[in-house]
């Protein structure tokens, strides 16, 4: 097995696909020879930068356009967009596949699954294809002939794929794969309101476009004397500078601002509540950590399905603006029953997952 070559194919559109790819590489590296290939690097390296920038612009400033394309691909079996892209790069893709000569392929991006499916159909190769869904979706864009295994986030998604004709025997419920440190926490230490009240809240500020951390929010934070807030701004240096300046100017003693955090699992493990956006990877990191959460309603593509998943499974509260975030923080920290129920529902979800990704491949 160690000699088998595994290619994990992905794309640099958002962080989730890349994150899942690296998680799987770490999980498989002791069993296989594993390489991660970005399809943009493979087929059009000179255009990668402009394409990624264009995608970021589309998702930030033209959400309506992005949502139209997303819903088209979600509802259309064998959508014409992926087919057109494959025909455009068909000969180059086939040549690259011959050069790479993988023993099997793991795909963490819908278009790469489509490309490998088309390649297998044309060449009649018995090349195993494993597709890993990175959001809680049952979109047609992920489903392609010749797929030998699907890793899906939940049993609900598995049932929906079966309804669409996928053989249930090739579906594994793995959750969205997350790194091992996020799976190390076994129990959430619930604080009761009759204990000495000292809570910690994590705010993923770089992800909260609809709930900005402004003067009003920071003033509200400063009045919660029994709560410590950690605000993470990620790689957005401008956001870090702005929030840090506001914190210093207003002398908000219970707020700590951090830039990009390498060991996020360690930080999450200290928290009583996490406020974030509904990205697939982040949601499942929080689920494995068993921490109650507030989730921003983004009205954005695949995140709409993730929000529905949070609501349906009662593992978090949805907020649409800063006022609702502040209200949610106050309510959840001091209502033991609701927080306890969220944690219990998360634990049930985790129990249903196959989190040994090597075994799930078998």
For this entry, give a set of tags.
362 residues; six-stranded parallel β-sheet; 15 helices; 12 strands; 15% strand
Notes on the structure:
With about 350 residues, the chain is an alpha/beta fold. Helices cover about 45% and strands about 15% of the residues. α6 links the parallel β3 and β4. The longest helix is centred in the first third of the chain and has 21 residues. The radius of gyration is 21 Å and the shape is globular. The termini are close together.
Number of helices: 15
From the alpha carbons, calculate the radius of gyration and give it in angstroms. Answer: 21 Å
Beta content: 15-25%
Sum up the overall morphology in one term: globular
Instruction: State the strand order across the main sheet.
Output: 2-1-3-4-5-6
Oligomer: single chain
Residues in helix, %? 40-55%
Main beta sheet: strand number and arrangement? 6 strands, parallel
Q: What order do the helices and strands follow? A: EHEHHHHEHEEHEEHEHEHEHEHEHHH
Distance separating the two termini = 12 Å
Helix-strand makeup class = alpha/beta
């Amino acid at each position: 097995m160690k000699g088998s070559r595994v290619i994990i194919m992905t794309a640099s559109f958002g962080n989730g696909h890349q994150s899942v790819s690296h998680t799987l590489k770490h999980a498989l590296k002791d069993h296989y020879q594993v390489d991660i290939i970005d399809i943009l690097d493979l087929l059009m390296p000179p255009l990668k930068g402009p394409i990624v920038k264009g995608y970021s612009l589309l998702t930030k400033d033209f959400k309506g356009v992005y949502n139209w394309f997303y819903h088209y691909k979600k509802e259309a079996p064998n959508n014409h967009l992926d087919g057109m892209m494959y025909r455009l790069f068909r000969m180059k893709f086939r040549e690259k596949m011959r050069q790479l000569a993988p023993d099997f392929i793991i795909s963490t991006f819908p278009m790469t699954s489509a490309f490998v499916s088309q390649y297998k159909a044309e060449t009649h190769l018995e090349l195993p294809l494993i597709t890993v869904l990175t959001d809680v979706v049952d979109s047609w864009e992920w489903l392609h002939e010749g797929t030998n295994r699907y890793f899906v986030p939940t049993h609900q998604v598995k049932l929906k794929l079966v309804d669409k004709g996928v053989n249930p025997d090739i579906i594994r419920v793995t959750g969205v794969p997350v790194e091992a440190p996020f799976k190390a926490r076994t129990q959430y230490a619930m604080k009761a309101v009759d204990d000495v009240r000292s809570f910690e809240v994590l705010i993923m500020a770089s992800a909260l476009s609809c709930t900005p951390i402004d003067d009003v929010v920071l003033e509200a934070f400063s009045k919660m004397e029994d709560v410590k807030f950690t605000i993470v701004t990620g790689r957005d240096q401008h956001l870090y500078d702005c929030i840090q300046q506001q914190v210093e100017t207003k002398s908000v003693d219970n707020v700590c601002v951090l830039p990009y955090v390498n060991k996020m699992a360690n930080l999450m493990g200290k928290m009583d509540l996490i406020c974030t956006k509904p990205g697939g990877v982040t949601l499942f990191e929080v689920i494995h950590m068993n921490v109650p959460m507030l989730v921003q309603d983004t009205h954005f593509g695949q995140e709409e399905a993730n929000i529905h998943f949070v609501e349906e499974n009662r593992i978090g509260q949805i907020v649409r603006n800063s006022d609702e975030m502040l209200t949610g923080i106050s309510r959840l920290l001091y209502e033991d029953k609701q927080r306890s129920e969220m944690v219990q529902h998360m634990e049930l979800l985790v129990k249903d997952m196959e989190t040994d990704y090597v075994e799930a491949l078998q």
